[in-house]
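Data availability (excerpt). The following record was deposited with the supplementary files.
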Amino acid sequence: MVAALIIPALNEAECLPLLFDAIPVDLFRWIIVADNGSTDGTAAVAKARGAMVVTEPERGYGAASLAAIAALPPEAEIVVWMQADLSEDPLEAYALLAPIRAGEADLVIGSRTTGEAAKGALLPHQKFGNDLACFLMRLFWGGRYSDLGPFRAIRRDALERLKMEDRNFGWTIEMQIKALRLGLRVVEVPVRYGVRVAGENKVSGNLRASARAGWIIFRTVFRLALG
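Predicted structure:
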C-alpha cells in the first residue's frame, strides 16, 4: 500500500530542509506541504525539495489538511500527517504504517504519552488538556485513547468515510471521535516527541493560542456529542 505524507506548515522555512533530510526516500511516494499563509518562503523551500505544495490562506490546521486532502493523488492508499518542526521522528512512520499494511488497523495514532516526550516538549497545560479530552472521549464514546497526537496514519478509504469538516484545532479530535462512531479499527503506537528544532512554537508555547486551541477542541467534543 502506497503512502502520501501531509505536512501542514506555517512559516517553517527553517525546519523543512532538516525534516526532508530526515525522511527516508522509500517511506512516501508523495509529500504534500500545505502552506497555511506563510511569509518566509516555506512554499519555495518545499518545492525545491520536490514536494507538492498546496496553498490555503485560511489559517487553521484543519483548513490546511483539507486542502492537502483535496490534492491527494488517486493512487494514494494511506495518508500520514507529520508536523513540520521535526518534533516527531520520521523513522517512526514505519511503525505507524505497519498495522495498516498488515490489515490490522484503519487509523494509527502516534502516542506521545505512552512513548517518550523530551523535557519541555509537552507542557503542563498541554498534558492537562490532552488528558481531559481523552477522558471525555471515553465518557461519551467509550474510546480508550491516550493522546491526541498529530503524528498519525489512516487508510484513504477510512479517511473518506470520516467526512472531515473541522478547519482548525479540532481536526485531530474530530478524526478520533468519528473513528469511534464508525467502528474503525484504531491502534496507538508509542512515539518519541521532541522540542521543535527551529522557528517559533505557534501554539503550545503561547498561552493565549493554547487556550484558544483548547476551547476549540472541547467545543468539537460537545458539538459531536450533541449532534
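Summary of structural features: The first strand starts at residue 3 and ends at 9.
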